[in-house]
User: Fold these one by one.
Assistant:
Number 1:
Amino acid sequence: MNRRNNDTEGTDLSKINFRTFTNIRPVHHVVFAYEKDMTIIVQPGKIDCFFHKVVADEIIDIEYQVIDSTHGDLDISFQMADPTGRMIVADFKKPENSHRHTATIEGDYRFCFDNSFSTFSKKTVFFDMLIEGEEPEDRDYDDDKEMELGNAAETYMMRVRDISESVTRVKDKVSTARRLQELHSAHEARDRNLAEDMCTRVLKWSIGHVVLMLLVGITQVIFVKSLFEDTRNYRKLVPGFSS
């Protein structure tokens, strides 16, 4: 993954991090896809942007969620823009969301996570992006093979196609299951962070209340004790003091 800085109209460049997706792996073949899932930390007052090249008619499927925050709410703003800069999606301060868009033009699409509204809170964001497209089927080999072997091989070729389709379906299901497991893991991480944060808050409040109770108890003991102290020593020290 590479990081770069570009000019963005109307935006403070010091607050934006630009990144480009690389080393994206193919998931399956007949309907091919590129998938990328990442967990990033968006600093307070900053915008993290990612770019990925998309071909026309490919489907962009992106899902994100905020799984941790140092202070405040679990929310983030999100924007998706096409290569011309036209805004396609704009979410403002949402904990999670998903979007599906069919690309109309080819080029580098921009995906930005905006934490500029936060002053002190940095956000941990998990997102999963899937780019789907139709891959042209190469049937020349099958047709040539059938013509070469004749009608006797028709049954064999049909079985080969059936096996190929079955394998492709299995790979699709496995890929979908893996993606759902990753999203479930992100949900689990968010819930765990919320539980740990709540536990920390309860512990701090409990310690504060215990300390306050001890201080109040000590103050009461000192005050009650002072009511029963003998003041005759003060009479000797202070001339003219009388009861």
Number 2:
Amino acid sequence: MDIFVFRANHLVLLSIVLIIVGATIGDMWLDVRGGASWRHIGQEMLILAASAAGIAYLIHHLGRQRRELAQVEADLAASKAQATGNPALLDARHQMGKAIQAQFEAWELTASEREVALL
């Protein structure tokens, strides 16, 4: 699975979270070297953990969406193949369309009424 093919909004969100992670790691490094309190470092570790969890969730969610999309595309292709591969089904659809149009003509429906009736 290619997780690097994202929608634009997902890519923006992922970029923002990655920037937060990078900035947090850099800030933590400077804080540790500068002698910051462990409470402050702990707070930044929580931010880092939340950002990492956000990245993991986003990648998992995108992977699931891609799998679902692939399944829908496969189902659609199978449905099209089944519909085009069965001449009896195509003939039945054609006959049904003719019967519907004949009934619309018998009822003397306008073009607008026919559109609504087909819905």
Number 3:
Amino acid sequence: MACFMKTAPSSILIFLFYIISSAQAVEDLKREFISAQSDKPVTLDCKLEHQTVKENQFWYKLISGQEPQEVATKLETKVTGSLSPGFDKLGFKLHDNFSLTIEQPNKAHEGMYFCGQDGNTNKFSKGTFVAVKDHSQSEISVLQSPAFQTLSPGEAVNLQCTVQPNNQPADQQVFWFRSSAGRSFPEIIFTHHSSSSSSNRQCEISSSKDGCVFNFTKNIFNTTDTGTYYCAVAS
């Protein structure tokens, strides 16, 4: 069943597409999304399963198309952590419990944030997307479909995000990524710049009276292609 949301176009809009093989059970893979106001602090908590005290801790920021950036670290031998070079002057604050606060969010703070621990086994938290609203822009709506679909190996699925009203394609950018059981964090599988002249046979944009439609087609070859697919639209 499709869902309908309303938010600011400067926000990254996250929608879930569950794709499973007919032999695989559905697993509830929750991810967080924060739409931040530029004048209100945002705090990210470090929540890990089977968390231990005597391990190094870290925060990472992930932006599509870039390598993860280390935001903060806390060594197991230290009582407090510290912000990484460069991030100590960007309005971040690190707390004693290793939560991370963005004191005055702006567009440079947008991205997906993870905390984690390294030890015998690396652990990661569920990713949190932070998007910052621009008060000067009007609201838009996004319709997504399908919300859930079961496929057999060898079949293909078409995922769709419709952005309303129909903004100019040059104003929009779409991200596609996937999370699945056994992965510590979602995998970015495609980034589409609607202003680019390049094309990809798996992704296309079409416009209609209902808005700008983003389509992504994925062939499901085996269970490694199953999981939760996300559409993220930014303006």
